[in-house]
Design goal:
This protein is mainly alpha-helical. It has six helices and three strands.
């Protein structure tokens, strides 16, 4: 009789534990937040940085908190060149850099020596600029 009693007690305890394990994941929120990191070399008082902060606020509002933009000003993540390298390997989601730094990564952004003499750009900027999408 003692063996049956402890078997039943063990069975009920196991069922109770399984029920609790099934209940706890249902209590937690399934809302995942996607974080985009933006690094740049401007000061926190610069108007472009203030516009980035406004973008972060609007992104949070429009996505109902599903997207978050973390901004790292004043070269916290590195120089402009290092931010572009981080962008290439996927460690950074967005960056703001100068055209002079971008010339080393995108040859079409620079002017050739002969093109500079004739005052023409080698590739139109519309061929280099990525297509922008607009959330409806």
């Amino acid at each position: 009789m003692v063996a049956i009693f402890s078997f039943r007690r063990c069975l009920w305890a196991s069922l109770l534990m399984c029920g609790l394990l099934l209940l706890f994941p249902a209590c937690r929120s399934h809302r995942q937040v996607t974080v985009i990191k933006l690094g740049h070399g401007l000061s926190p008082t610069h108007p472009v940085h203030l516009a980035m902060k406004f973008l972060a606020q609007r992104l949070d509002e429009r996505s109902s908190g599903r997207l978050r933009l973390d901004i790292y000003p004043s070269e916290q993540l590195g120089s402009e060149r290092e931010c572009l390298e981080l962008l290439q390997i996927g460690s950074l989601g967005m960056t703001k850099v100068s055209c002079s730094v971008l010339e080393g990564f995108v040859p079409a952004m620079s002017m050739s020596a002969e093109g500079a003499k004739r005052n023409e750009v080698t590739t139109p900027i519309t061929a280099v600029r990525p297509r922008m999408w607009r959330a409806g």
